[in-house]
Design a protein that fits this description.
The chain is built from seven helices and 15 strands. The protein is of the alpha+beta class. It has one domain. The strands form three sheets. A seven-stranded mixed beta sheet has the order 5-11-6-12-15-14-13, sandwiched between helices. α2 packs across α5. It starts with 6 loop residues before the first helix and ends in a 16-residue tail after the last strand.
């Protein structure tokens, strides 16, 4: 039976032999840690149904025939991406560490933290923010230089806006498959150095199939603060309810606190459901990440 849940929940179900992997991957990725994932339809891609129109239905008089409801849809396909990397250990360094296995064991936590941070940044900018920009689901805070931040509003919906994982993964009992390069023997890398190598690989993806689930508040600067109405409108654009989050850089919290004085912005320690939440806006969790660009985003021309 497939599991839908966060990487931590999936790891508890499928990655019992290497449970530490999820801690390393999500240690510096608060956003990645709260995204729900579901099993893709195929090993390397997911086929899903996109609803284009629903018509008919409604109330009718007593004893009158019921209206027919027509649901028009089309099949879509989204490819999974590889979350992975290679690690190389020169022969002499392996000897100094007491063997290649000890070297890789020592370096793997740092490598996976970097891998997780890169994956989170890709989700934030290549998936979520870009989808909002492409669909004009954008609100302009008013900054016009290239020292901006963004605030993302995302509502996760099973089968629509959600993370994906390959059904063929976890064969080794870990979120990522770890394999020795060249069978664990010596080989020559691109620079001609002899050594040993391993590679990490897993198939994951991000599906967004509902335009009312992702929106962005862009061009936020120290001098261009979003108003409470802007933040409320941002949440309205994604029809905020259960499983809705605001994502931003940690430094944006002070801006939101200034904008939402009173009841809108509240500091809130993490609870059992959203461990990485540190604040909320009218009950919507705010999750901050240092994997957002820190006041270095280019200003976005927003259609008026």
């Amino acid at each position: 039976m497939s599991i839908t849940g966060t990487l931590r929940e999936i790891s508890a179900a499928y990655a019992k032999k290497q449970p530490q992997q999820v801690d390393w991957l999500t240690g510096e990725t608060p956003v990645l840690d709260v995204i729900p994932f579901e099993e893709a339809s195929h090993a390397l891609w997911n086929v899903y149904e996109e609803i284009s129109e629903v018509s008919g239905g409604g109330f009718v008089d007593m004893d009158a025939p019921l209206d027919a409801i027509d649901v028009d849809s089309r099949l879509r396909k989204v490819d999974l991406s590889i979350m992975g990397a290679r690690m190389f250990c020169p022969e002499d360094k392996a000897r100094a560490f007491g063997g290649r296995d000890k070297y890789f064991a020592k370096k793997t936590p740092k490598a996976l933290r970097k891998l997780g941070a890169d994956a989170e940044k890709a989700i934030l900018y290549r998936n979520l923010r870009q989808y909002a920009l492409d669909g004009d689901a954008v609100i302009d805070a008013g900054g016009h230089d290239d020292g901006c931040w963004s605030i993302l509003a995302v509502r996760f919906v099973p089968g629509e806006t959600i993370g994906l994982y390959s059904p063929g993964g976890f064969t080794q009992g870990g979120l990522l498959n770890v394999s020795a390069i060249n069978g664990g023997g010596l080989y020559e890398n691109e620079q001609g150095v002899l050594g040993y190598g391993i590679r990490f690989k897993g198939y994951f993806g991000m599906q967004i199939a509902n335009p009312h689930t992702v929106a962005a508040l862009v061009n936020v600067t120290p001098d261009a603060h979003p108003t409470p109405v802007m933040v409320d409108n941002l949440l309205d654009m994604v029809r905020a309810q259960k499983d809705t989050y605001l994502f931003c850089h940690r430094k944006v919290l002070s801006i939101l606190a200034e904008s939402g004085k009173g009841a809108a912005f509240q500091m809130a320690p993490g609870d059992r459901n959203v461990d990485r939440r540190i604040a909320e806006w009218n009950g919507v969790p705010i999750v901050t990440s240092y994997n957002f660009l820190d006041a270095t985003e280019k200003s976005v021309a927003v259609k008026r």
